[in-house]
Design goal:
alpha/beta; 8 helices; globular; binds adenosine-5'-diphosphate; nucleotide-binding; translocase
Length: 239
């Protein structure tokens, strides 16, 4: 069944050329879908429309049976908890520890002050520890985020997203700032999350080879338009 439907979505910033033109696709529950395209194609704009960081100019987005564009503030907040965001630049709070950054995913308890672990329940802290262990970060739990390598930072980003218990991971160029080895580790974790936890993954990538290796389906966009869409098999044959 469809978890996300993007129906005829267009986006124009001011009087600029259309950043997105009639984008149309569906992502099913548990699917691993990559969006590929060159820089400036509209990938990031598309993801920002899906969790409504920005408003579409026209078209519908339906996530988990909710019309995203019609949600009021409170409903939007709830819907966003079902979407775990992963960013190219990790968006961690540099001076906080790994476990504190992870706990930022817990709904409504965000603190940017160090040493406030007492804010969180024993259960929340145990969940954070469990996630960090599973991502190979157990020994870095109390290290400051800014002392980690890029690959380690992105694993903290994944832990922070997973503690929300999301239905979908929305990943905006998660490996664009990483070396090939760290990139592989991150992609392997995302694939594993999708396979073992049944979480849907929608990921922006500019590396075609990575998309081909990890995705159930690939959507190619260029100049704000869908230019192809299909399984890695069909795409390898056609291009
Ligand atoms: P990609 O993620 O594929 O590199 P983007 O979604 O960032 O592409 O950009 C698509 C187009 O939209 C580009 O022409 C970009 O300049 C434009 N754009 C993105 N965000 C804004 C914004 N906030 N204001 C104006 N133009 C924007
Ligand atoms: P972000 O993309 O999360 O903003 P940056 O790469 O800009 O992360 O780095 C944030 C801080 O972490 C900077 O102070 C930088 O010097 C430091 N930093 C980045 N990479 C490393 C690393 N591999 N080891 C130690 N410190 C790092």
């Amino acid at each position: 069944t469809a978890l996300l439907q993007v129906n005829q979505v267009s986006k124009q910033f001011g009087n600029d050329a259309m950043a997105l033109s009639n984008i149309e696709f569906t992502v099913n529950e548990g699917e691993f879908v990559s969006i590929i395209g060159p820089s400036g194609a509209g990938k990031s704009t598309l993801l920002r429309c899906i969790n409504r960081m920005i408003d579409t100019t026209s078209g519908d987005i339906i996530f988990d049976n909710q019309h995203v564009m019609k949600l009021k503030k409170k409903e939007l907040k709830l819907t966003r908890t079902k979407i775990g965001m992963i960013f190219q630049h990790y968006n961690l709070v540099h001076r906080l520890s790994v476990i504190e950054n992870t706990l930022h995913g817990v709904l409504g308890k965000k603190s940017t002050i160090a040493g406030v672990l007492g804010l969180y329940s024993q259960e929340e802290k145990q969940q954070a520890v469990k996630l960090l262990d599973s991502l190979g970060l157990g020994e870095f739990m109390y290290k400051r985020a800014d002392q980690l390598s890029g690959g380690q930072k992105q694993r903290v980003g994944i832990a922070r997203a997973l503690i929300q218990n999301p239905k979908m991971m929305l990943c905006d160029e998660p490996i664009a700032s990483l070396d090939p080895n760290s990139a592989k580790t991150i992609m392997d974790h995302l694939k594993n999350i999708s396979k073992t936890m049944g979480i849907t993954v929608l990921v922006n990538l500019h590396q075609v080879d990575v998309a081909l290796r990890y995705s159930d389906r690939i959507i190619g966009i260029n100049s704000g338009r869908v230019v192809f869409q299909g399984t890695p098999n069909t795409i390898t044959k056609e291009h």
